[in-house]
Automatic annotation (TrEMBL), chains A, B, C, D:
Residues 3-141 form the Semialdehyde dehydrogenase NAD-binding domain. The keyword Cytoplasm applies. The active site is at 149. The keyword Glycoprotein does not apply. GO terms for molecular function: N-acetyl-gamma-glutamyl-phosphate reductase activity. InterPro entries: AGPR (IPR050085), AGPR_AS (IPR023013), AGPR_dimerisation_dom (IPR058924), AGPR_type-1 (IPR000706), NAD(P)-bd_dom_sf (IPR036291), Semialdehyde_DH_NAD-bd (IPR000534). The gene is argC. Keywords: Amino-acid biosynthesis, Arginine biosynthesis, Cytoplasm, NADP, Oxidoreductase. This is N-acetyl-gamma-glutamyl-phosphate reductase. Belongs to the NAGSA dehydrogenase family. Type 1 subfamily.
Length: 345, 345, 345, 345
């Protein structure tokens, strides 16, 4: 039984961590923090937790958190995380950080897309927590940078193509769509129900901050630098990301061959489901679960390969993957606490 | 480990039973049936189950089902259930029937609201499976009639008021609202996305079939015949029922007194959550869980009491309550397999 | 051609006024104001208006507005409206005020439910702008208080019952459900997409500010003071209110008789549609239009009458009714600019 | 005043034609047909029309329709349209056909993607009804093939790029997303509310029937054969299509230059709105209107151009464009009856 803290528990990632950790047989939620809600029960912010999670929100006080918990999830905004993560490590704690602060290895890239970095010395040590690609490095890590939601879906969609060198990487296009929980729980007009419902639009076109993160991982698996066009869109649903990926296919392989390659890459991966031919990923079929559903085909008329990946952005795209990383770091069975089936409908 | 069958697995109640039973530590799903999909994997009908539920649909063949399973959930349409339930009992199986066929004790009432009953001799034996009211009778039962979704929410909302005799029962009004999964998975124009989305309407006004079922249970707890006005409405959401109940309050009690009475009635009930004062039930806060959230107040200007109850119609209103009944019938801990927190957002 | 101003154009009522007035053949939108957006095009706040509404937002400056416009719609928050309406009247303008500030005739009632009133002397003069009840007083009025959305639906639903004295008024219960645009465009966590979508809950139970407004109008038509229980709920849709109204029926009349009474009351009313028997109002069928759809029945088992009314809260519940009032005040045909059919689906 | 018929009025395109034609000052709806609903009021199928459209559905009887109407909209399924269109033409009527039957000029292409064509002799005569590209041919036409919803959005998005030769056409990728009304009003499980709501998925990947239609139009504007990869997705909204288009940009132009080119192409087009820089098209901002909103940018890191277009699939993508074509064919002002602003929110 390990005692964990959720630092920054008042957002959607925080409540999802609470839901998943509550169901984890080897974990006790020992501390939750929320600067704006010190002294309030977390269940007062999220009545869904009523009767089950009785923790009261602490301030983000490093000593207090370290006194209560052995393992720390930081679910803070970018740039707020880096203000406390070094202290947690210094106190001897292991951390899964769900912000973007430790995902990019190059400080110059971070500073180009975000702002100044206050603990760049940790970037080399931090391990990018996508188990299906970096599993061996995660187990011994002190600091795991939990991947972004879009990057998780894109990396899993494209990894076999890039590892095997089956596409012209200069033609990569990713058209991605995310549910609104990805925008967080901050009170903004753009996230109001009436602004999002019955709407659909692109945003961050040719400039979304997940672009360098995606490129870093794809570069690792391809063994060469990658540049891609990435366009996110806002979906009028609570949860789910679907990324549709396109590239010019350069191999003389059939769809069946390609499916076999994907099967080989993922048959040991419990959380990656290559769907039967013709059954395309639907975010509704992964809701609430840690699965990433995949399918693909070749367009014989244009020579393009099309791969689609669906995840729940709050689970495999955030809290679930964080728990998966914790399991690896603690030597628990990787799927412990994460085996629930998706909620459909 | 008990082997269970889901007879009629192709509807939303069927897939929800599969989801919940898959997570139950003492259960193996040994048989699933679907007349229209014999020979197909259940996961082909519901890709959310892909990789986890590998059962192939059998026909609704009593001998076959009885050979494979020890315990049977019938999730068939009304009037189809009664065609097979007697045979399952005859074969020595215990059954939780999720249809309406065995919920009403009086055959005349059944035949007034539905059609002719083909096994009326079982009505006296069948136990109405609302554990918070009929727990003791459920444990030894061979046949449990799993309650309807609306009746579950209304009975839990009103039980303390009626047991304690605090209202004028001639003034009872229940205004209820259900998510669309309550209409089932049949292909009907009225259930199409574009017909339901951004819409809201009453239906079955002054004539919904759950009325006599509600009245039977309320009559039991009140110790007297009850007649009420019940108006269901269709909500543009997948899951959830919220029932708002009104009656003239006849007791000289404060809201605090009344809350204390509700607390007493339900403090031992894990699945009934009386929310803090001012926090009204929201179907979003019970999604995917077996909880029933309650709150209430008095209108000092009119002397009415107002009680609202929220459940997930597919869980506490159907599959979750069925599993709760199975737990009672088998002597398992009542909440086994049902302790997951709601999925919010 | 009259020149109109929309004072407070940055909310959902403001943009709906712009949409409707743009389509009105006798109106020119001569001025729009928004304190927070002075100098910006209204179409920058609402790209739906792009290319059609080119007005730039002015400050809420009485002299400026009066110089530009002859007729003024104030779509400001409660208590902000009363700070400017007297000055517009003093400058000789006629005003339709969409706030609650001039709806209640008794200053004591206003101050009990809202706060101190700064121009109580206008309450006696202001005309409550529900044309189907107060048409004759609206035409000559200088100041029309545009009704609230809930009160409009409830008054139209119940007027015939109360005028004819067919119910026991002590038993009135109104269970109402509103789309989320009713909560306005302010950035609040409770109005975020993920908080509202797939949710449903009551709010303001036994204490909503529309209660005294409903009671005032019902009292007028009944000829006696009315107290009712009114429970609003939040619907996960953009637009629409459905009010389901209950009362003990005291007349010896059939449903057909009652329908005839409603038909008589409303056959001259273009915007009130009594639907055919069995076709219940659905907010989807009035979307974007100024219609109020009605239907009703008697519950023979309990003696209750049930009446349901559906409106678009932004049209008949706000901007459309405001235009209808303007038409009456200017002697235009009452339905001018308001004859568009609902947008379905 | 022309008398029009809506042949096939029971679908979503039919009711939208009724809504728009009802508002058209020069049109009388003289006939509506629906094979399954002969003798019923159209308003019984669509209560949104109650009180305004009193027409009763006729059978699809050519003589009857021709006796009642001068101008005919056929809103029938593919292959059903071609069974009646020739007879309407033979009777001297002019027709806007909203099916796919006359959109493809090459019968072989039609038969490859659809089935056998029974009136191929009309393909040469039929004019593809996209006014912003084929306006001059539409005015004198007897038979106008109203474009598909996806093709309309894609053609308007890409026309300037292809006319000016600014991209490598072998790299064209269109990732499109459609609201559910595009699937029609047929009772299918896949279109049920609970299947679509909170979901999102691709469909028809590398094989959707709109592909050859898009390629035909783009080929016309490019002056060369075009092959593109086109992936549609199903959006959980009632109305709206957003198409995101990608291609390798081959010109030495800035974003400002490119915007100027688009402005030149569309400044005379009332229904095409090039939005301000940074304001991306959102289907919510065209709902209920005949507008096509566009925006674009260049991705400097990859050299791709990205163009997004949003339309209401039932208006500019079907019924609205059909009315626009009728206006052109009759010499009415092109925007007559189509000038309503979008309904937001």
């Amino acid at each position: 039984m390990i005692k964990v803290a959720i630092v920054g528990a008042s957002g959607y990632t925080g409540v999802e961590l609470a839901r998943l950790l509550h169901a984890h047989p080897e974990v006790e939620i020992a501390c939750v923090t929320s600067r704006q809600n010190v002294g309030e029960e977390l269940a007062a912010l999220f009545p869904s937790l009523h009767g089950a999670i009785t923790q009261v929100c602490d301030d983000v006080d490093v000593d207090l958190v370290c006194a209560k918990a052995d393992f720390i999830f930081t679910a803070l905004p970018h740039r707020t995380a880096m203000a406390v993560v070094p202290a947690f490590l210094h106190a001897g704690k292991r951390v899964v950080d769900l912000s973007a602060d430790y995902r990019l290895r190059e400080v110059s890239v971070y500073e180009q897309w975000y702002q100044a970095h206050t603990s760049p010395e940790l970037l080399a040590e931090a391990v990018y927590g996508l188990p299906e690609i970096y599993r061996d490095k995660i187990a011994p890590a002190r600091l795991v940078a939990n991947p972004g939601c879009y990057p998780t879906s894109v990396a899993l969609a494209l990894k076999p193509l890039l590892v095997e060198g089956l596409v012209d990487v200069s033609t990569l296009v990713v058209d991605a769509k995310s549910g609104t929980s990805g925008a967080g729980r901050a009170a903004k007009v753009a996230s109001l129900f009436c602004e999002v419902n019955e709407g659909f639009k692109p945003y961050g076109v040719a400039g979304h901050r997940h672009t360098p993160e995606i490129e870093q991982t794809l570069g690792d698996v391809a063994g060469a630098a990658i540049r891609l066009t990435f366009t996110p869109h806002l979906l009028p649903v609570n949860r789910g990301i679907l990324s549709t990926c396109y590239a010019q296919f350069t191999a003389a392989l059939s769809v069946a061959d390609l499916r076999a390659i994907y099967r080989n890459h993922y048959e040991q991966e419990f959380f990656v489901r290559l769907l039967p031919e013709g059954v395309w990923p639907n975010i509704a079929n992964v809701r609430g679960s840690n699965f990433c559903d995949l399918n693909l085909t070749l367009d014989p008329r244009t020579g393009k390969v099309i791969v689609a990946a669906a995840i729940d952005n709050l689970v495999k795209g955030a809290a679930g993957q964080a728990v998966q990383n914790m399991n690896l770091m603690h030597g628990f069975e990787e799927r412990l606490g994460l085996a629930q089936l998706p909620l459909f409908p």
